[in-house]
Predict the structure.
Amino acid sequence: MIATLLIALGQVLVAGAGAPLLVGVVRTLKARLAGRRGPSPWQPYADLRKLLGKEPVVSTTTSWVFRATPYVLVATMLVTALVVPILVARPALGFAGNIILLMYLFMLGTFFLALAGLDSGSAFGGMGSSREVAIAALAEPTIILAVFALALRAETINLGDVVERLAREPLLAANPAHLLAFVAFFIVMLAETGRLPVDNPATHLELTMIHEAMVLEYSGRYLALVEWASAMRLFVFMTLLANLFFPWGVTSLAEPVPLLLGLLALAGKLAVLAAALAVLETTVAKLRLFRVPELLAGSFALALLSVTAVFLVP
Amino acid sequence: MAAAGALAAAAIGLVALVLGLGGVAGSAWTVVVDWLVPLGGLELTLDPLAGLFLVLVGGVALPASFYAAGSAERSARGALAYPVFVASMCVVPLAANTMTFVIAWELMSLASYFLVLHEPEERASVRAAWVYAVMTHAGLACLLAGMLLMGAWTGSLRFADWRAAAPGLGAGARGVVFVLLAAGFAGKAGVIPLHVWLPLAHPAAPSHVSALMSGVMIKLGVYGLLRAGLDWLGAGPAWWGVAVLLAGTVSSVIGVLYALVDNDLKKLLAFSSIENVGIILIGVGAGMLYHGAGLEGLALLALAAALYHTLNHATFKALLFLGAGAVVHATGTRNMEAMGGLIKRMPWTAACFLVGSAAIAALPPLNGFVSEWLTFVALLQNTRIAQPMLNLVFALGVAGLALTSGLAMACFVKAFGITFLALPRGDAAARAHEAPPAMRAAMVALAVVCVALGLGATLVVPALVTVAGALTGDRAPVAVGDWLTLGVSGGFATLSTLAIAVALGAALALPLIALRLAGAARGQRRYETWGCGRMLQTPRMECTATAFADPFRRVFGFFYRPEKRLDITFHPGARYFVQRIEYANPTRSIFDDWLYRPALDALRSVAHRARAIQSGSANVYLAYIFAALLLLLALA
């Protein structure tokens, strides 16, 4: 019981404390690739601290929904940190609803953030909300199908079982269906976390922004919470990608040494994925908003192919 | 007068609720009154499935009737039709022979027809009622044909006899009866493409009636489909299940697509009912397929998921319609473009509507999430049927359900956000007032049921599995678990909404406490929204309902086929001065354009041709009668 609680706390700490570093690392790498020195990878922590110290300004137009949303966002991300296998294959809330719960928790956050965007009454907020929910809605079927393809291979939808099964039988992963599902999931990850080529996290240009438009009215501690939650979103999605498709190092034992090794393995895998993301974001341009559905439809087709491959090639 | 009718309906609802709960718990009885109804007499039987639908009728009729009694409207219209409507909906699931069923069914349709015709002076209201009458009677014709054929082939009009005789019928005969019955029931359930009456009729009725029509009446179509496809006709071939599953997938995706672009709050909710019936039918279709394949545990799971969603949709859709009614009452319009900012003037209604929106968007830990979770879990185990084509059908169902849930989330961000948040877009919305206490109480009660059905999943699912088992005769352990965790299909998946709720609560409190301990700045300054330096924030700068749905209108343009109408009136002196700009961006319905319009045109042209034989002379008609007589004699 105490071990479970400690591991739960550990997962939340790793996700909560590691998320800003992940964002910082991606930023630094992107700056280096573009030939700039860029900020230190620890910069997001300093940003959060600065924001927490500032007095927030809240629009007179808004209601309690606007003020509650940052807390709801953080809460959903903290709960996902208890569902996703970050350090151990079977985290504390692993039993609470499996992979489907995870998708709906992400939707819970999007739902409230989109409402907050509308609540400010500015043209930007509403525009951002409308675009964000459109992309989230189109990404949803791909996530479910990609995970479904994995679940079919491992014959379970329990994330812990998928991880353990794939770790035990690496040959299961040596399969075209697995690769298709990985690519589909990667594209969806870009869309769901607001990265290039879907959304540009570094811009505040009115007509192109999506996520930044929604959170434009936030300031002070509210903005800090929103930024922290979106960093955790990136962290959780990347961890899912890393641990579901490459489950090396994720332990089933609650002992210090395997846990430490798991943490190191996770750091290594995330570093590789962060580098891939940085390279991708430096080499591709942002897509026009109405070309994004084509990208998502492509990833959906990949996921569907992956599922079909499982049926046809047992 | 109207209040008396509402109270009578509330009493009927209470009786139905008690009887229904008894039926779900296992009490069974039969009442036969031979002299009351021709051709077999009145025969009512309570079994678990009938009990569940009685609970549905009673559970929605009770709050809806209190809401009606408490609303400020004092017109006598519908004072009789409303209790008759509720009572006939109670009889439909109990009916045990054809005549009882058909009479109750028709009474339900007629009573709701009069309720839809709420404003006989309005053209739109008359048209809605007319389309409703035509569609519901076309459905009744299908039902009667199917039931009479079944009666002729089995020699009895009692449903119990059909059950016994069905396995002896040929596959072709059963197929014909199934198609006829399914068409009739699907029309009532609002399955696409038989849905055209629903978005017209539901908004036209008063809101408590809309709540009953969307929450309960269309579910009786689902009830009929369950009876026909699993009980009266026994287990069918695979194509029955495939047809139901695909119809459900199509209905859910197309229903929510229409809901997304509609700016009429009640019409949006009506379209979303089509979507939810689709989700229910996905579960029903999967259940029929598993049942046919002999996978008893999975069949029970899929049917329990469908029944759970039936229960859930009744609660949250009734809640949303009552909330919409309060909003329409306060603002005098159903057009969302004239609303906004109501959360400050109607805090209770807004909070209840938010619970309903979150529940229908299937957000954890509310009830919509539980039933969609169960449906997904049931669909995802389809590899236990080893037929690649069927597996593909299931995969389509999974993808359709996932797309639907994403779009439904977007749809209810729009429904709540545009209606209740930001600044009021019209004078009426700025002067809106909160609903009276009885209406608020009804909404709060339904919101509490939404939360309870979400958190009490471990109690509800086993009960629904028992109901499904009584329907199909399957016996297999499906749900195991304790008070905290629900495990289905032998540990294939586990769910604990209680744990999710506790974790979310703790995670909400954590940053609050941590920020306080860390000594972060506490106060906040109120200032107007940043607007690029302009002088004034007005509602015209807000995102409109049309603009919110614009990305969807573009992405699914092949389906909506939107038109752009831009009307600019220039100053007569110089074209540089614009006096007025009118912009409209309507979407078209492919079902009207490609299905109903050609069908009606064909009907009209046939009728036109048939006029040739109508001379108006009595002698010619006598000659026709004589010729028909000769023909019949020759044939005999």
Remarks:
- The two ends of chain A are 40 Å apart (CA to CA).
